[in-house]
Structures are given as structure tokens and as C-alpha cells.
Amino acid sequence: MTIDTAKMPAAGRMGYRFNLVGMLALAVILLWGFVAVFAHLLIPYPVGEIVDVDYFGPMSTQFWLGSDYLGRDMFSRIVMGARYTVGISVAAVAIACTTGVVLGMIAAVSGGWTDTLLSRFLDAMSSIPSKLFGLVVVAAVGSSIPVLIFTLSVIYIPGAYRFARALAVNINAMDFITVARTRGENVFYIIRSEILPNILGPVLADLGLRFVFIVLLLSGLSFLGLGVQPPYADWGALVRENIGGLPFGAPAVMFPSIAIASLTISVNLLIDNLPYKIRDRSVQ
């Protein structure tokens, strides 16, 4: 038996299709990532300091995005809020997708009782409504950044598991997996070198979608008062704090909403316009 290496997709042999919409979306995502990392250097005023004599102040040269319901600078609060919204969401989606994908590949390759027990347990977890689970956990334990990250990651582990398992089951049935088993390769090698490279593209796309879901769920919890607690605030908490300015069209309530929309829409556009292409592996 000979293996035609020209027809085998080596790990990392993936194609990318760039277009203008995808590049613009990527630019917005990188911008918010930069803001989240260097927020403490970008804010002109301390986030908790009252700097405006007026509340719900308009945009001006002194206060670029106006002031909030207490007279605090909204630009500073939105920039610092990016650190919490982006940081918590990235940590939660990394834990959720890493755990779910690893468990999904193990279940697909091992089969038998391992697959059955993992699938039934995670199916039971996924039957619990995500927002209800988040509300119960945060209300019972208390809201803190570690609790938020843990809660959000647990909510989305079952979905990442089901997605990765479905992909891995299809790959596990292919001939080159049989060849690897015949060579005597262990489960760890098959998962790392055979399964993962062939499902990486769809998994990364799924990661982006789950990041959007986590941002929206985190913002929803914060809007209900169960997210990041004062004096700090993420974007959802900023909307809740300044909801009283909605009848006045205050910038303090509009710009946090625009920030949430710009991040989530950009991630969706990036996924739609930068698809990963993984060629089929064939063995001759």
C-alpha cells in the first residue's frame, strides 16, 4: 500500500479566502482586541470619577461619547468595559471549546461506554436553558469574574462537544484512520495527528459563533445586574446603568449598544467571509 502524499492534507494545509468585508470585519475585531489589552492606557479619565457637572451629557470635544447618568466619561467607561466584555468572553469560549472538542474527539474515537456516558451526560446539561442556568448559578454563588467565566463556559461545553463529535465520527470512519489503527497507533496519536487537523476549520468557525453567543449572554446577565459588578462594568452593564437616558437619545445608552453590535456582527461577517477549506484525505 502506498500513500499519495500529494492528496493528503497535512496539518495546517488550509486555504483562506479574503475579501473586503472579511478584512473590514477582522479590522474591527482586532481594534476591540487592542482596546481591551491597552484600555488602561487609552482612557482619558478614571472610570469611576465624576467629571461632568451635567448627567447624560452630549458628545463634545472634552467628552467624546458624552457622560453617563452620574456625569462620568462614557468613552473611558466603554474602553474599559471592552476589557471585561472581550476578556471574559475569550476566556469562556476558550475553555468551552477546548473542553468540548477534546471530549468530542475522545468519544468519537473510543466509542462504546465512553461515548454513551459522555453523550448522555452532556445532553442532560444542554437540556437546561442557558439563561436560566446562568441566572441560578450567578444568583446563588454571587457575581465575580471567575464565576462568570466558569458559568459561561459550562453552558457552551455541550454544544461544542456535539459539534466536534459529529465531525470526528465522520473522520473516524475513513480509510486513513483504519490504516493508522493497523499501524498500531494509539488513541492520542489518532486524535492529535489524524482527527484534529481534519476538523480544525469547522471547529474554529464554531468557536467564533460561540464567542458571539457568550458576548450576548454576558451582556444579558449584566443588563439584569448579575454580570460585572460596580464600580467596574462591561458593555451590558453600561446599557443597564444608562437606560434612563433612552427617552433623551443620550449617547451614554447608545454607544455601549453599538459596541456590542459592532463586535458580534464583525465576528459573524468574518466567519461568513473567511471560510476554512480543508481538502479530503484519500489513501491509495
UniProtKB/TrEMBL annotation:
Superkingdom of the source species: Bacteria
Annotated localization: Cell membrane
Principal location class: membrane
Residues annotated as domain ABC transmembrane type-1: 82-271
Pfam families: BPD_transp_1 (PF00528)
Spans traversing the lipid bilayer: 20-43, 84-113, 133-157, 207-228, 248-271
GO terms under biological process: transmembrane transport
Topology of the protein relative to the lipid bilayer: Multi-pass membrane protein
Keyword list, A-Z: Cell membrane, DNA-directed RNA polymerase, Membrane, Transcription, Transmembrane, Transmembrane helix, Transport
One GO CC term on file: DNA-directed RNA polymerase complex
Family to which the UniProt record says this protein belongs: Belongs to the binding-protein-dependent transport system permease family.
Protein name per its UniProtKB record: DNA-directed RNA polymerase subunit alpha
Organism in which the protein naturally occurs: Phyllobacterium zundukense
